[in-house]
């Protein structure tokens, strides 16, 4: 059963139950008041004609009735009638006696009643004794008794009372009113049903459509919430789910693309040294290396190429483990100033050999602790320094280290006065396999993984890494690390 039908049924049921309960409680109330089941049965049919008259009216009416039956001539006596009329005055009723086609007595109060024409006809059986009549714009309710005067003239007694015009009006309009009320109820029911189902069914249909789209692999649409209610919240949640799904699928596609690119790069980078090794081995086999010097040179080239491959495979392995987040980080608190000093000391021999002057700018009192993994961080420093060494051709080779403390993190700069990087290459140097000079040969060595690995390591530390470089002036690599505990006042 559809929600629309269910709502319609529930509204209708509610309506029927309400009307039913209303009727039942009304009937019970009447039963409680009258104590008579029969009165309920004839309630509507007899309501108007049996409308009870006051005790005063009743007693006057009975007296007059008695007179009409026993001494009808008395009803021609004006004084007697006036006395009765006087009694009726107290209850705002009045007396009319009709004889034949004229009034024998008509109270002064009922000026609007003129002529007997509109009064109900004589009826010897006295069945319809109570009703409502209208004279012009006025309405009157009456009790009537028909009798014969001694001279066989037709006589009628009316105890008559002016009533609100609405009484008669409502009597005539009652069935129409009930009909209109029912129609109104049905229309209201219909409108309510329409409004409620529209606010539920329409967004549900939209969600159904969206689900079908997702099932068919289409995620390029938007689910908009039209309301703030539960259904609106569902739409918002649905839209969030669609966005996440889209993001994750896009990411997957990107990964897939990356994987393909990675495989192609790896095969290229492995093939180059292998081809060279094969060439030299073939040379040896063919007897090209015919002197011990040549043989020595061939063998050392083979060895160097194999070593390069080994290093490349190591880098690849590390890179892929970092990429898959499968590498363990042993974070500890490190004093960066001491760490860099130690690092410089360790590499001092290499710096000396390369003729590099090392400068370390620090604020001596500044011994902020950072959170880092010693080994991985060393890898970052080595990668950056190696690049600097590789790209320094000037006579005066300088590498400078500086530490800057900001409120949120510690910023480390490693600056060289080397060749610098082409501005077009700057955004790419942290990409894997990227080599700015495109020297995919043995001259500069390297696979283009050094900075990609460094970037991953720094990101794992919750930091950032970037470059500033000017051609022929030098390059600065910056990276940030998080404080272990921010000391007071700094
Ligand atoms: N200090 C620098 N001066 C000039 N160019 C640099 C510097 N550092 C990096 N580059 C450029 O950025 C590129 C990428 O560096 P990256 O360390 O990732 O790779 P690589 O040094 O070529 O290879 P690997 O580090 O894997 O041996 C380098 O090829 C180089 O062109
Ligand atoms: Mg490098």
UniProtKB/TrEMBL annotation:
EC number assigned by the record: 2.7.13.3
SUPFAM superfamilies listed in its UniProt record: ATPase domain of HSP90 chaperone/DNA topoisomerase II/histidine kinase (SSF55874), HAMP domain-like (SSF158472), Homodimeric domain of signal transducing histidine kinase (SSF47384)
UniProt domain HAMP: residue ranges: 198-250
Molecular function as annotated in GO: ATP binding; phosphorelay sensor kinase activity
Keyword Ribonucleoprotein annotated: no
Bilayer disposition of the protein: Multi-pass membrane protein
GO cellular component labels: plasma membrane
Classification via Gene3D superfamilies: 1.10.287.130, 6.10.340.10, Histidine kinase-like ATPase, C-terminal domain
Enzyme class (EC, first level): transferase
Keywords from the UniProt entry: ATP-binding, Cell membrane, Kinase, Membrane, Nucleotide-binding, Phosphoprotein, Transferase, Transmembrane, Transmembrane helix, Two-component regulatory system
Protein name, UniProt field: histidine kinase
Organism per entry: Gottfriedia solisilvae
């Amino acid at each position: 059963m559809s929600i629309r039908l269910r709502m319609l049924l529930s509204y209708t049921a509610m309506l029927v139950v309400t009307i039913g309960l209303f009727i039942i409680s009304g009937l019970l109330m009447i039963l409680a008041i009258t104590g008579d089941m029969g009165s309920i049965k004839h309630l509507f049919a007899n309501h108007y004609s049996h409308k009870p008259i006051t005790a005063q009216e009743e007693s006057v009416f009975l007296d007059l009735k008695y007179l009409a039956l026993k001494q009808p001539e008395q009803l021609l006596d004006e004084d007697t009638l006036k006395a009765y009329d006087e009694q009726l005055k107290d209850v705002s009723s009045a007396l009319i006696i009709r004889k034949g086609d004229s009034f024998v007595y008509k109270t002064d109060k009922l000026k609007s009643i003129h002529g007997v024409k509109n009064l109900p006809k004589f009826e010897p059986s006295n069945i319809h004794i109570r009703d409502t009549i209208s004279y012009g714009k006025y309405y009157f309710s009456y009790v009537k008794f028909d009798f014969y005067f001694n001279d066989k003239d037709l006589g009628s007694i009316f105890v008559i009372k002016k009533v609100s015009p609405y009484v008669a009006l409502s009597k005539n309009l009652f069935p129409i009113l009930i009909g209109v009320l029912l129609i109104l109820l049905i229309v209201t029911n219909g409108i309510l049903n329409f409004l409620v189902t529209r606010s539920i069914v329409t967004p549900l249909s939209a969600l159904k459509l969206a689900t079908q789209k997702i099932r068919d692999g289409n995620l390029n649409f938007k689910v908009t919430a039209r309301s703030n209610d539960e259904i609106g919240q569902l739409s918002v949640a649905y839209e969030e789910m669609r966005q996440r799904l889209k993001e994750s699928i896009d990411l997957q596609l990107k990964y897939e693309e990356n994987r393909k690119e990675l495989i192609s790069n790896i095969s290229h980078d492995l093939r180059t040294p292998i081809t060279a090794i094969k060439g030299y081995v073939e040379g040896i086999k063919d007897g090209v290396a015919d002197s011990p010097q040549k043989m020595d040179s061939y063998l050392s080239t083979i060895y160097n190429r194999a070593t390069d491959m080994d290093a490349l495979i190591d880098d690849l392995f590390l890179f892929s483990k970092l990429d898959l987040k499968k590498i363990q980080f042993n974070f500890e608190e490190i004093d960066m100033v001491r760490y860099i000093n130690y690092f410089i000391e360790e590499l001092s021999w290499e710096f000396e050999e390369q003729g590099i002057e090392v400068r370390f700018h620090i604020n001596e009192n500044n011994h902020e602790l950072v959170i880092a993994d010693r080994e991985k961080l060393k890898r970052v420093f080595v990668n950056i320094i190696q690049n600097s060494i590789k790209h320094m051709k000037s006579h005066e080779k300088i590498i400078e280290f500086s530490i800057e403390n900001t409120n949120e993190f510690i910023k480390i700069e490693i600056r060289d006065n080397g060749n610098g990087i082409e501005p077009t290459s700057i955004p790419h140097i942290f990409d894997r396999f990227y080599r700015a000079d495109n020297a995919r040969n043995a001259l500069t060595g390297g696979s283009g993984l050094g900075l990609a690995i460094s970037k991953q390591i720094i990101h794992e530390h919750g930091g950032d890494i970037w470059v500033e470089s000017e051609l022929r002036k030098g390059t600065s690599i910056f990276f940030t690390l998080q404080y272990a505990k921010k000391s007071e006042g700094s």
